Task: inverse folding
């Protein structure tokens, strides 16, 4: 049976490296972010990691840098 989990960007199990900043103002008021926060970066070497046990993971809303 599949199990699903929603991981918020402020979840302490996420490990951010590099220069990140936290946006607490909604980016788009018509589609507010989950829990009202977004992590963003302009650092090309920045990463975020999340360890889990399982055979599949999906990241539906990762946006590439402009």
Result:
């Amino acid at each position: 049976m599949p199990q699903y989990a929603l991981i918020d960007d402020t979840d302490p199990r996420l490990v951010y490296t590099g220069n990140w900043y936290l946006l607490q103002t909604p980016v788009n008021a018509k589609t507010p972010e989950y829990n009202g926060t977004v992590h963003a970066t302009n650092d090309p070497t920045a990463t975020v990691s999340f360890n889990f046990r399982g055979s599949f993971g999906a990241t539906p809303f990762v946006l590439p840098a402009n």
